[in-house]
Amino acid sequence: MTELSPTPSQTVGPFFGYALPYEGGPEVAPAGREGAITVRGRILDGAGDPVPDALVEIWQADGSGEVPRRTGGLRRAGHGFSGFGRCGTDAAGGYWFSTLRPGAAGGDAPCISVLVFARGLLKPVFTRLYFPEDAAAHATDPLLSQVPEDRRATLIAEREADGSYRFDVRLQGERETVFLGI
Question: What would be one Pfam family of this protein (predicted)?
Answer without folding.
Answer: Dioxygenase_C
